[in-house]
UniProtKB/TrEMBL annotation:
Residues 270-407 form the Acyl-CoA dehydrogenase/oxidase C-terminal domain. Residues 6-119 form the Acyl-CoA dehydrogenase/oxidase N-terminal domain. It holds the Pfam family Acyl-CoA_dh_1. Its cofactor is FAD. InterPro entries: Acyl-CoA_Oxase/DH_mid-dom_sf, AcylCo_DH-like_C, AcylCo_DH/oxidase_C, AcylCoA_DH/ox_N, AcylCoA_DH/ox_N_sf, AcylCoA_DH/oxidase_NM_dom_sf. Keywords: FAD, Flavoprotein, Oxidoreductase. This is Acyl-CoA dehydrogenase family protein. Belongs to the acyl-CoA dehydrogenase family.
Amino acid sequence: MDAAFTEEQDQIRRTLRALLRERCDAHAVKAAVRTAPGHDGSLWRLLARRPGLPGLALPEAYGGVGCGSVELALACEEAGRALLPSPLLATAVLTAPLLARLGTDAQCAELLPRIVSGELTAALAVPGGALPEALGLTGTRAEAAGGTRNGWAGGGRAGGVQARHDGEAGWRLYGQVEQVLDGHSAGLLLVAAHAGGCTRGRTLLFLVRGEAAGLTRTRLTALDETRPQARIELRDVAAQPLGGDPGRAADGDPERAVDGLVRLGVTAAAQLAAEAVGVADAALAHTVAYVREREQFGRPIGSFQAVKHRLADVYVRVQAARSAAYYAAWATDRTDAPDRRRDDHEAAVAGGLALAQALEAQRAAAAEAVQLHGGIGFTWEHDAHLAFKRAASDELLFGPVHRLRACAAERDGLFGVASPSAASRTAVAV
């Protein structure tokens, strides 16, 4: 493993950091989250033009930059450092990779260039608020498929989103999805739905246009305003199956959508971990700067040994989390190794562990920022609470940490020898 970044990767980091330092300070963040879309549209289009952010990891054939997971992780880290409110996570990390991997040539040719240009944003809608389970981060393969009693896709019972084929009318969706990241403003929704009833049930992915008739979208009040969430209600909404007609033998693999979501979880975990590291690093830097200036008993409080120890502990956590996030991103980019199955399995385990470690580092850095800023740090309006809310929200959305670690341990057979069938289920492709 070569731990050094290339000149191109360093340039991506420098360009984004300079641009976000100029356009995305704390005041700009607070102003952007209070707009209707929840982000600065002009800044997003600028990020699409200059560093090509939404298309960073998309193929060049569709106008993308053609980079890999490492480059996208570096971009996510800088976005986290600035607490950038943007469609980056919903569009570039969660939805576009699924579209590129599972979409037909016609779907990719129509939609991916618009995503790359910043014209179109997208959101992934997973019923039941069970995004980490669907991505295979905190759940077993059966849970990802909706095969448990409370399967997130509905399982043919009440709840979730149901898909029905109405002959010439095509596919129609019915149901409701909560906590859809950027779902209120996305021009394209990628909805996971259950089709086939109880006996022949399967999970499928559908494309839904943002202006579709019967679609109602409501922005929800969220703890972290920099991650806008929405409720999606579908009442007889026209939808297009991702990847073609699931009734055809070539497109009708019942495992295809579930496999795609679990494979997405491997790369998404690395990007989420890198973003959390950026948030933690920025919170730590702001706290260090404050304790150097704030005086108590005639000296800066940063000169007291107890404060130094607390910040040193956070620094170690952040650096360890950064190393884990970089390794997870590097592992997902290993496509030419002789033992692909082993490397895919290694990437899946590394991603979950990196995300768990990054979420812990983010929480520790945010908590110390509030504590060491003293009385002013406890006021809700202080900038320290931007990182504090992000840390709390991320663990609710993508954790909890102990389940991330438990799932990684189960995948790796840490507490027992996994059976060959279990090994094949957990060795997912990147």
